[in-house]
């Protein structure tokens, strides 16, 4: 929920950082990927004040968004704040629901007519009052629907870092499923799942110890099917050189594809402006004029 602005590295060559535009163009044209997630902090978008979008900072983010849209893919706005602003929980002592809704009103207004922009309300809420968070999301959805000109996909994130593993056991999935559009429908309201495969589901360890199929994605798929809902695995990643992960990551993503009636897909973490030694780094390398994918990408993501 905090974000020192001097650490921000927008993945754009024009700003002196990674070639996110080139990577997305390669992933879309050469690998057939059709959705990219573009994380950004609330603080960056508004230059550390709760209020209007900052012209310069939002302008930089929009450069990345336009590069993504140019590929023909869906592009996810990911507010990467963990349901917080500098430690204060949205609607629970931190920013008010109305302030959160105002952020989304501004973003929905900017992209009001483009259905290829997906609105992920928040990255990985955790340690929250679930009922209060549902109310915060309902307020944000109502604001988006009022501001937009086409019906965008909105991703509804839940408790425990949006963990697919606790979607049913903690009840966050059914709770977020009560969020509706102003007309009481749930059209284009998609449940937002995250899942890693290391020992504590954090993505902080290089080796995989689970494939998440029988214990997570099959029962969640059954619930989604029964309740006529859909979800997306918007963040998942593994140690890119771990032999155990070549088995488990491939198995998980195969299961997601096998249940495509209820899962819209998955988005692998991560590429863009990332350190080359980051163990979850899936960024391709540019050799001459040719982008070369990592082995994990070619075997388990594409």
Word description of this protein:
The chain has 302 residues and is of the alpha/beta class. The protein has ten helices and eleven strands. It has helices at residues 20-31, 42-46, 55-70, 97-110, 130-147, 159-162, 172-176, 213-226, 243-258, 295-301, and strands at residues 35-40, 74-79, 84-85, 88-89, 117-120, 154-157, 189-194, 231-236, 263-268, 285-287, 290-292. The strands form three sheets. The protein has a seven-stranded parallel sheet with strand order 1-2-5-6-7-8-9. Strands 3-4 form a two-stranded antiparallel sheet. Helix 1 (20-31) runs parallel beside helix 3 (55-70). It is globular and about 45 Å long. The mean pLDDT is 97.
Query: Quick one: overall form?
Result: globular
Q: Which strands sit side by side, in order, in the main sheet?
A: 1-2-5-6-7-8-9
Low-confidence stretches: none
Q: Which range best describes the helical content: under 10%, 10-25%, 25-40%, 40-55%, 55-70% or over 70%?
A: 25-40%
Topology as a string of helices (H) and strands (E): HEHHEEEHEHEHHEHEHEEEH
Q: How much strand content do the residues show? A: 15-25%
Number of strands: 11
Mean pLDDT: 97
Work out the radius of gyration. 18 Å
Distance between the termini: 32 Å
Helical segment count: 10
Structural class: alpha/beta
Task: Report on the biggest sheet.
Answer: 7 strands, parallel
